[in-house]
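**User:** Once you have settled down, spend some time on the protein underneath, comparing sequence with structure tokens, and judge whether sequence predicts the tokens.
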Amino acid sequence: MYNTLLTLFLFAPPAGGQTPNPFVQIVPLVLIFVVFYFFMIRPQQKKQKDREKLMDNLKRGDKVITIGGIHGTVAGIDTEKKTVLVQVGDTTKIKFDRTAIATIDKQDAGDKLTTNE
């Protein structure tokens, strides 16, 4: 009984020249996959869902920072083309792809835009 437990938990080959159990050889691969899933894949999926939720709640008046480091305020959203019109200065407006928005600082004022501008 003791040798069997050592074989299962320590992944040691059985004593006496017996052929190793195939289950014992598969267990480390399964454990590696489970650890990989919970530490790499699952957090990335959650992060992606949070980002999509954030982009869906984007509205006029939100202060944004693009991936290029440009700070501005959302002046309009084109949902069909998936672009955002960002006002950078007093009169300067730049059109960005929605994926170019890195962070959003939510504002209380403003309404959610669904029309083309």
About this structure: The helical segments are 2-10, 22-56.
